[in-house]
Amino acid sequence: MRIRNGIFGALVFGLLMGAPGTPSHAAFVTFGSWSSTEPVSLSPTITVSDSPAGAFLVSIFLGAGDIGSLSGFFFDLNGRNLALGLSTVMGDIMNFNPAVPAGIIAFANNTNNLGGGVNVIPFAPFEAAFSIAQTSVPVTGISFEIKNQLGAVILDDFSRIGLRFQTSNNGPDGVSLDGSDKLVSPIPAALPLFATGLAMLGFMGRRRKRRAAA
User: Of 11, 14, 104, 193, which one is least surrounded by beta carbons within 10 A?
Assistant: First the structure.
């Protein structure tokens, strides 16, 4: 398994939102660091935004020179119960741009394998996943919306994403479309380390102040 690191890894951007007393959240989140099953992997970038109202807009772009067809999308919501805001019916994934010929083929919970070769094995199962007919990702990217009808899911809940690409150019010669890729964003392992680092910096700062006062 190969780890591909982006410049920033997974970064949360944008203004903090929310009224006093409600959890603040990012206007959009970007995923750009991936674990891959292939020695040469694709390098997609994904943004998830909380606009339009009542839905999340997911946009997927491939790196320069990459070619691939998306066949599966997997995601975690930080352990949040999907029934609280995102239901598990295929109709809640909508507005593909460009249009997917056959639409959603399968939708499942707690899985890393949707059948028909659409899987992210050996990575751990995801809370939700869906498969589509193989759709080539154009230079302008591909996007779709996930409904959030009850508003119980917030953008920060998107904690891990998996992608299944087929007919891609990351094979041995880097040209022929005989490659494929399984990519997973390694976010859960990074967040605790980040939090620990912040706590350590705060502790060291307080310790220096006490020494200076003495």
Answer: 193
